[in-house]
């Protein structure tokens, strides 16, 4: 059934046109944009977004579910972003999509309300600590083997979420309290450790997967400087970090010039339902423009040490959460032993 038909049925069978910008905000004025100052294109507007210098060099790895975990880990060491294709069958992907719908309480048709501003997208939920049905995804064989190769046997999963009709559009880092903390082993100036975030894209077969935008190599200042020099980028990492601030300004100024200029450096890693992205949480990244319904599940992995142990153990407040870490321990995630021991210690 088409989306238009779904909308018509949801509105009592009345004919309806899908919303567009003018229906939401009224007639729009022409607003400043960096696109207008560039060469538009030879035939149409194919050059109006500008050139992305990172397009001249490899910026992320690509593997298949059948790729050995050691090879995936090697790609991660090189790029800190790896797309692994076909981790889930269409049936498994559709089932994960169903779980995300249940947790978020947002159906695909609810995207229209989110777009209009009468409802909000969903993010969060700590799914693995509240619903055992997410465990096979957080501990998926291909994901588990790759993560353990990257982080070692002292790793574990310690932060999950569901996203539905939601996009964190501003470039940001996850776990900023670590990767931006001077003196931390995770600090981007000279990272000795890393936190791995895995995005599991899911949908029925007729829907799209999703995209993650990254500023390549920004998880490590030294590597970024080397690659920026290689492709002729003279802007420092700090300039890309102003993206969120510039996006907030848009709501008042409607001036897209500064945002467009940063946006053209974003590398978009596209996925199909059933693919996963293995990423470094310290790399500047953002979500895509929300133009249609979108769902994904996120799981997070860390080497359990003095910096991450307090964060991980603080989440374990229920018997189900303890059972989850005993489950992970049985699958070779040795860091769960430290978390369980810390929880028992704190309880006394």
Task: Give an account of the 3D structure.
The protein is an alpha+beta fold and 348 residues long. It has one domain (31-347): Jelly Rolls (Sandwich), CATH 2.60.120. It has 16 helices and ten strands. The protein has helices at residues 3-10, 21-25, 69-79, 90-104, 111-116, 127-130, 135-138, 141-151, 176-179, 221-231, 237-240, 243-253, 257-263, 309-313, 319-330, 335-347, and strands at 61-64, 81-85, 122-125, 155-164, 196-201, 210-214, 267-271, 276-280, 285-287, 295-303. The strands form two sheets. It has a seven-stranded mixed beta sheet. Helix 3 links the parallel strand 1 and strand 2. The longest helix has 15 residues, at 90-104. It is globular.
Mean of residue pLDDT values: 91
- The CATH architecture category equals Sandwich
CATH homologous superfamily (4th level) name: q2cbj1_9rhob like domain
- Evaluate the radius of gyration: 21 Å
Tally of alpha and pi helices: 16
Spatial separation of the terminal alpha carbons: 57 Å
Uncertain segments are 1-19
Please give the domain count.
Answer: 1
Give me the count of strands.
10
Spatial strand sequence of the major β-sheet: 1-2-8-5-10-4-3
What fraction of residues sit in β-strands?
15-25%
Shape: globular
SSE string, helices as H and strands as E: HHEHEHHEHHHEHEEHHHHEEEEHHH
CATH topology: Jelly Rolls
CATH class: Mainly Beta
SS-based class: alpha+beta
List the helices and strands and how they pair.
Layout lengths: L2 H8 L10 H5 L35 E4 L4 H11 L1 E5 L4 H15 L6 H6 L5 E4 L1 H4 L4 H4 L2 H11 L3 E10 L11 H4 L16 E6 L8 E5 L6 H11 L5 H4 L2 H11 L3 H7 L3 E5 L4 E5 L4 E3 L7 E9 L5 H5 L5 H12 L4 H13 L1
Parallel strand pairs: 1-2
Antiparallel strand pairs: 2-8, 3-4, 4-10, 5-8, 5-10, 6-7, 6-9
């Amino acid at each position: 059934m088409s989306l238009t038909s779904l909308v018509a049925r949801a509105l009592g069978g009345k004919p309806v046109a899908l919303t567009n910008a003018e229906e939401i905000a009224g007639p729009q004025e022409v607003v400043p944009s960096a696109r207008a100052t560039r060469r538009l294109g030879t035939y149409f507007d194919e050059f109006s977004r500008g050139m992305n210098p990172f397009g001249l060099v490899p910026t992320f790895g690509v593997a298949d579910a059948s790729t050995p975990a050691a090879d995936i880990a090697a790609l991660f060491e090189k790029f800190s972003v790896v797309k692994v294709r076909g981790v889930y069958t269409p049936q498994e992907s559709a089932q994960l999509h169903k779980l995300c719908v249940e947790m978020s309480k947002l159906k695909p048709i609810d995207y229209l309300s989110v777009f209009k501003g009468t409802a909000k997208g969903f993010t969060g939920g700590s799914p693995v600590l509240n619903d055992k049905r997410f465990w096979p995804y957080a501990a998926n064989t291909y994901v588990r083997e790759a993560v353990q190769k990257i982080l070692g046997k002292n790793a574990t999963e310690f932060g999950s979420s569901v996203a539905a009709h939601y996009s964190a559009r501003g470039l940001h880092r996850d776990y900023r309290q670590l990767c931006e903390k001077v003196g931390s082993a995770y600090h981007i100036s000279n990272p000795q450790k890393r936190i791995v975030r895995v995005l599991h894209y899911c949908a029925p077969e007729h829907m799209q997967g999703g995209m993650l935008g990254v500023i390549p190599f920004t998880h490590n200042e030294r590597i970024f400087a080397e690659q920026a020099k290689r492709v002729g980028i003279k802007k420092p990492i700090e300039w890309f970090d102003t993206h969120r601030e510039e996006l907030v300004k848009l709501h008042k100024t409607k001036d897209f010039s500064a945002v467009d200029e940063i946006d053209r450096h974003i590398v978009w890693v596209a996925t199909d339902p059933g693919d996963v992205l293995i990423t470094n949480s310290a790399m500047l990244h953002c979500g895509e423009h929300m133009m249609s319904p979108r769902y994904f599940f996120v799981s997070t992995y860390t080497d359990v040490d003095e910096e991450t142990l307090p964060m991980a153990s603080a989440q374990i407040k229920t018997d189900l959460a303890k059972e989850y870490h005993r489950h992970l321990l049985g699958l070779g995630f040795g860091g769960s032993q430290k978390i369980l021991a810390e929880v028992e210690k704190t309880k006394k």
